[in-house]
């Protein structure tokens, strides 16, 4: 007897899934904008500590990883994964303190882009790399450039990009225990990186509104996009997910302008567009795609 084929995904379901990815990216960047507004109160280190701690509590309540068994090898990968996740949170917030959110996110996507290109032998893919490097060169504060970007901010964003690349490589091993469990344990381990920095820079007393905004940041940057992306990935191909995720720098620039009045110059917008194009080109032309769901940044 011939098995009845499963019904194809409807156009409406695909549209809703694609919209979910876009909303998730907007949520992550909105969370970054709110986080940046907290910097004057608790500093970027304090925000990173609040975000990872609150996210860890929420994710542990959902995943309850203590009910599962892991091998010593899996535990080692989870620990490395969490340490990288904590470093990525600190690095990107240190970058956001010095440069606009849209530019920071644009530089950060060099991480997953580099992971894909490191295993590529296609000339076309190296053209995408050249495009991304050209965009990065436009952002470097060369002498006599009007409104130069902070060089330390660029360096921290590149550090976050390196952490994101390691996050992808370690995440493949860590996810063997299940994506929800890996993220919950990884976020808990990340607290061991962020909390000491947060405590060192924390004010004598933490205002209650800061805790409330920290909860908002954790939900917008972690819980909400995680749920949206996990649901959408069952409806979309990895290439489409990668393509839609490439929009993150543009959304970051727009939200940074609307929430924080961060204004990019024409040259900076060109750099952001070039890096978006490089990421999107790799997502469409390479397997696996360059862009993946940002548990990090869910983190």
From TrEMBL:
One of its GO terms (cellular component) is membrane. It comes from the Bacteria. The chain crosses the membrane at residues 45-63, 75-95, 101-119, 126-143, 149-169, 181-202, 208-228, 240-260, 266-286. Pfam families: EamA. It is found in: Membrane. Keywords: Membrane, Transmembrane, Transmembrane helix. Belongs to the EamA transporter family. This is EamA domain-containing protein.
């Amino acid at each position: 007897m011939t098995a009845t084929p499963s019904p194809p995904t409807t156009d409406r379901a695909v549209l809703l899934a694609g919209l979910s990815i876009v909303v998730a990216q907007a949520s992550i960047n909105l969370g970054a904008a709110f986080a940046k507004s907290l910097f004057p109160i608790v500093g970027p280190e304090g925000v990173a500590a609040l975000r990872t701690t609150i996210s860890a509590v929420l994710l542990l309540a959902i995943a309850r990883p203590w009910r599962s068994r892991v091998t010593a090898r899996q535990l080692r990968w989870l620990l490395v994964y969490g340490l990288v996740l904590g470093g990525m949170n600190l690095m990107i917030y240190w970058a956001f303190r010095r440069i606009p959110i849209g530019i920071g996110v644009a530089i950060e996507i060099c991480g997953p882009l580099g992971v894909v290109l490191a295993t590529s032998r296609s000339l076309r893919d190296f053209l995408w790399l050249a495009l991304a490097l050209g965009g990065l060169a436009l952002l470097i504060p060369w002498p006599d450039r009007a409104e130069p970007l902070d060089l330390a901010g660029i360096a921290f964003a590149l550090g976050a990009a390196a952490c994101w690349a390691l996050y992808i490589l370690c995440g493949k091993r860590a996810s063997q225990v299940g994506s929800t469990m890996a993220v919950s344990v990884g976020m808990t381990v990340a607290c061991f990186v962020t909390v000491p920095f947060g405590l060192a820079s924390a004010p004598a007393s933490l205002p209650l509104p800061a805790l409330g905004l920290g909860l908002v940041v954790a939900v917008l940057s972690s819980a909400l996009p995680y749920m949206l992306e996990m649901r959408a990935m069952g409806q979309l191909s990895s290439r489409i997910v990668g393509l839609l995720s490439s929009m993150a720098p543009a959304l970051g620039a727009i939200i940074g302008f609307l929430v924080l009045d961060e204004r990019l110059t024409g040259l900076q917008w060109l750099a952001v567009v070039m890096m978006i194009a490089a990421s999107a080109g790799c997502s469409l032309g390479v397997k696996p795609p360059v862009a993946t769901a940002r548990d990090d940044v869910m983190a």
